[in-house]
Write a structure and sequence with these properties.
It contains 11 helices and 2 strands. It has a two-stranded antiparallel ribbon with strand order 1-2. It has 317 residues and is mostly helical. It has one domain. Helix 5 packs antiparallel against helix 10.
Length: 317
């Protein structure tokens, strides 16, 4: 019996859990800055919950499903770190103080939840109908691996920051004033957009780019839509707390991108060799966990310059 054979009941129960967790994580003081210690504690709690859900899958659907969930969750959680690198650059670009950043993250994560659901549904449907889609998906992962090696976060952040104000300005003017943390304000009777709205559009654009990486990656581990979606959602939950940890420890994670490049290359190879040389999911879990552990430990042991330098704030917009 697979976990998805529980049908609508599994989705309803998971939806109820997610709504409750969203109410706690996103609904608790969404506009308040979170300190490093509090953020680290919350991260530990959410990661424990995400890993703990794997036990539910393991006991309810068997070892294969449980191992697949854990591998997918670790993969998605590690890829979310790269998202947060870009978030740091976006906030630096628009000059948003820490007190306003949680508000943008609040709505950005909600948008990401809906966007990932659409991408997962499309990816699963394509793979179910057209087997050859596995090859361009693997190609996307290899391209992403090269981007990680080259440190492409700055380029993505710059492109999204340039695009955000441009999209918004087609509808309403964008002003450089923050207006007490509001997305929209009025100046001289006219409705205007603040840098918070431009930053939100930039963050959603960045998540769109990263979804193109993460969804094929998790589909290289499992094609079970329930496992794919639950691993994605649990990786996104608590992302706001993880952001404040990453923003503080940014300069100490210089080797993480190399580990992500290795992981994506491995997943791409797993997809391409699925017919000729299938790699057991237990091996995949071990490889992902080992690579991430090694790169994190090396990053913490070796001091140096930050892996990502903040993008310069624009002179005018």
């Amino acid at each position: 019996m697979t976990f998805t054979s529980f049908g609508p009941l599994a989705w309803v129960l998971f939806g109820a859990i997610v709504l409750a967790m969203l109410a706690v994580d996103l609904g608790a003081s969404p506009g308040r800055h979170v300190g490093f210690r509090a953020a680290a504690l919350r991260c530990a709690v959410w990661i424990a919950i995400g890993l703990g859900f794997g036990l539910v899958v393991y006991w309810g659907a068997g070892s294969e499903a449980g191992l697949a969930y854990w591998a997918a969750y670790l993969l998605e959680q590690s890829l979310s770190v790269d998202n947060l690198f870009v978030f740091v650059l976006v906030f630096s670009y628009f000059g948003l103080p820490p007190s306003y950043q949680p508000r943008v993250l609040f709505w950005g994560i909600l948008g990401a939840l809906a966007m990932r659901a659409a991408f997962i549904a499309a990816g699963v449907a394509l793979l179910a109908r057209f087997h050859w889609v596995i090859y361009p998906f693997a190609g996307l992962l290899l391209v992403s691996a090269v981007r990680f090696l080259r440190g492409g976060e700055t380029g993505i952040a710059q492109a999204c920051c340039d695009t955000g104000p441009r999209w918004v300005s087609r509808i309403i003017p964008v002003v450089p004033r923050l207006h007490d943390g509001n997305f929209l304000a009025r100046e001289d009777g006219a409705l205007v957009a603040t840098p918070l709205l431009a930053a939100l559009i930039a963050i959603e654009s960045a998540d769109l780019v990263f979804a193109v990486d993460s969804i094929p990656a998790v589909l290289g581990i499992t094609r079970d839509p329930f496992l794919v979606y639950t691993s994605n959602i649990f990786a996104l939950l608590g992302l706001r707390s993880l952001y404040f940890v990453i923003a503080t420890a940014l300069g100490r994670l210089r080797y993480v991108r190399y580990g992500l490049a290795v992981v994506l290359t491995f997943v791409a190879a797993r997809m391409l060799l699925a017919s000729a040389l299938p790699i057991p999911v237990a091996v995949s879990l071990g490889v992902i966990a080992a690579v991430l552990l090694v790169t994190v430990v090396l990053s913490l042991r070796v001091s140096g310059q930050p892996a990502v330098q903040p993008a310069p704030a624009p002179q005018s917009r």
